[in-house]
Structure formats: structure tokens, C-alpha cells
Amino acid sequence: MASSTPRVWFIRKYLDPGSRLEEILCGLVMVLTFTLIAGFTAGEGKQGVRHLLIGALGCNVAWGIIDGALYVMGNLTARRRHRRFLTLLRDARNESAVFSAISGQLDPLLEPATSREERAGICRELLPVLSRIELPPAGITRNDVYGMGAIFWIDLASVIPAVIPFLIFSSEPRFALRVSNALLIASLFVVGFMWGKFTDSNPYVAGSCTMLFGLALVGVAIALGG
Fold first, then answer.
1. How many whole angstroms separate alpha carbon 80 and alpha carbon 87?
2. Which of 6, 78, 173, 220 is the 20 to 30 A CA-CA neighbour of 148?
């Protein structure tokens, strides 16, 4: 228990609850898709089981790397957008240019509920605060790398429910495969249940919907060739 605490703390620090649940869901869908497809093609006996487990592990390792890289790219894009906005404010030569820069960010949100004069007043109130904000870094940060690591760990840990039955029922690979798939489907429900609690929804309804949604995604992936 003590050894898992640092990993849990690490993931919680660098990924918000919604992102964690989303990553677990994606990891489970990936593993379940692979095990369902591989179950029809893997050979019998220990050699077939070995190939299936190595394939499932490799599938999620690859997905963890890809998803982590996309996470870093998303963070870079968001910071560059914020940096560009703050730079526009600092380089503005007159009040009109300042209001134009702020309005570009606020108008889509405020225009339906405010008048032009009200938005101008909001711009005047925000300008002193925005002018004091430091420019975000333009490159990759340490938190980006740590967040990428947290995503990789979640995707890798998603393989665990698929592996355990093969370790327990090593002499009955087909039965172990069925138990593995059942555990993965149950894990989809658990993820949805936790998602429901996080969003103040009915956790049982959220769990059932997430499980069905996950199975539908698996079905689409299999139908389109995995």
C-alpha cells in the first residue's frame, strides 16, 4: 500500500479527476478491444497466452506514449494562445487596441448578455489585472513531462485487470480470457460510477451508461478492423 501511494499522489497532482477518468476509460477500451480480437486469433496454450499478454501490454504502452505526446501538444497550444493574448495587450499602442484584444476573448461569452458599454467597462476593470500576469513559458515545462508520465502510468495500469486472470488460471487460457473480459467490462462500470460521483450524477446510471458506451466503442473498433 505504501509503495502505491507515491504513484497515486503523482497522478492526482498532475491530472484533474476528469482527465484521470477519461484516460482510464480510454485504456480499458483499448485493452478490451485487443483482448476480444486477439482471443479469436491467439493460439492455444501458454505460448498463445504469452503472445496475447505481450500484445495487450504493447498496445497500451504505445497508446500511453501517443496520448502523453498529445497531452503535451495540447498544453503547448493553450499556453501559446494565452501568451499571444497577453503579448497583444502589452504591445497595444492605444486603448482601442487593448479593448479589441480583450473583446476578442470575452465577446463570444459576454455578448449575448451584455451591452457594448458594459463590455467596455469590464475591459477597463480587467486591464490592470491582465497587465500584471506573467507570460506563460513558450516551451515544454516540467509539469508537461510529469503529466505525460501520469498518463502513461494510467494507460499501463489499465492492463492489470486483463492480466490477473491469466496469472490465476494459467492452465485454462480460454476461461482466463473470459474472466479477463468480464473484469474489463466491470472496470468500465466502476469508471462510470466514479465519474457519476465526480459530476454529482446518479453513479449507477453513469456506471451503466459508461459501460454500454465503452462496449459500443469496442464494437466500433472491432467492426472497423481494430
1. 10
2. 220
